[in-house]
Amino acid sequence: MDSRTTHHDRILAALRDKITGGDWPPGFALPFETDLAQQHGVSRMTMNKVLAQLTREGFLVRRKRLGTFVAQPVAQAAVMAIPDIQAEVEALGLPWRFALTTRDLRAPRMDEMKSARIDSSAPVLALTGLHFAGDQPFCLEQRLINPAAAPTAPAQDFTTIAPGQWLLREIPWTSADHRIRAVAASPATARALALPNGEACLEVTRRTETAGQWVTLVVQTYPGARHELISRFTADPR
Fold it and tell me: What residue numbers bound the domain in which 155 lies?
């Protein structure tokens, strides 16, 4: 990776963290591009590329002759928190546990490369496991981890901590994409979740990045009759 790319990714992550962490709230006017470039020790061209990417991602709006501002969120539910499944289960008053069923360090499949936007055939850590609420399966988890972003992941046995919890603790993420859809349980999913074949399930797919590098792609499947998503909305004051 060349130095320009390294500076770009470092500054991109730093500015994104200021926005998502609340240091720069919606409507905040950013310093001038030349001042930001000087503060971070890079060229104005590099800073322009960082601001342009944050604008494409929806974090910023750039107004001609006025400057660059932190964008107003369209809706509070547009960004989902990464869930702590253990906390979800324990909030129900039930004991939680995670059982790892398969693990493999292997080349990514073509469908995985597309879903995770992987541009290399370097090995990935593929994990499958079950979250339990008491004795009942709560969520089937199928996860890929990028060893380039999480180099110590292949050495973890994930018997005392679930992969998602470990990643949240060890690898700070800077951006995440979510997709939620209803699916019919395949025979393998139905067996894992102790459901009839074809039972309605809720599938949450999430991909996270840090500094422009993908960290993990996870598909979490919940029995539809035993899980719901709840969001609170407020009106846009504009």
Answer: 80-225
The total number of structural domains that make up the chain:
2
Mark whether 102 and 179 lie in a shared domain: yes
Q: Please, which residues bridge with residue 136 across strands?
A: 133
What Rg value do the Cα atoms of the chain yield, rounded?
20
The span from the CA of 71 to the CA of 82, in Å, is: 22
Mention every residue, 6+ apart, whose C-beta is less than 8 A from residue 63. Answer: 69
Residue range 120-175, pLDDT digits in tens? 889 999 999 999 999 899 999 999 999 999 999 999 999 889 999 999 888 878 88
- Look at residue 61 and tell me if it is in a domain: yes
**pTM beyond cutoff 0.70:** no
pLDDT tens digits for 174-192?
888 888 899 999 999 999 9
Residues 63 and 87 in one domain: no
234, burial (CB in 10 Å: exposed 0-12, middle 13-18, buried 19+): exposed
* CATH number for the domain that contains residue 57: 1.10.10.10
